[in-house]
Amino acid sequence: MAGSIESTHSTETEQTTIPPRKNIQKKKRIILFSVSIIVWAALVYGGYFIANQYIEKSQTYLNDRISEIEATNEKQVETLNKQLSSVHEEMLNVKSELVFIQEDLALTGESLNGTDKTKSALQERMVALDKQLEELRKSIARLEDASK
User: Fold this and answer.
1) Rg of the chain over all Cα atoms, to the nearest angstrom
2) pLDDT value at 97 more than 90
3) Is 98 exposed, middle or buried (0-12, 13-18, 19+ CB in 10 A)?
4) What is the average pLDDT across 132-147?
5) H or E element: which one contains 76?
6) pTM of the entire structure?
């Protein structure tokens, strides 16, 4: 009997030592798994946070650049409109002067009827004004194309 008590006692001791080792290993696995999940979650959140910051900075930069470009474009359009107005005014002046010269030429031709010097001077002035008018038309066309 004494032998059976000792063997029962040693079996109980073995049983009590084996389960705690298995429990310790299970606890280690659970802890390791939990730590792995926490580290993984932290990395995912960190990546999201960094990506979000980058996107926000990029968006701000792009918005600033777009605002600058819009302001520059507005200034250029305003400048082109001013140039177009001045060229248009100049063209109107040349046109009215050309009409005036044609009227003078018609009057001169009727009254003097033969002064070649006057006719040729007026004709030269008309040719010069015609050239200037054509140049102004080309400038207007270029300015209109540029403003589009």
Assistant:
1) 49
2) no
3) middle
4) 81
5) helix 2-111
6) 0.48
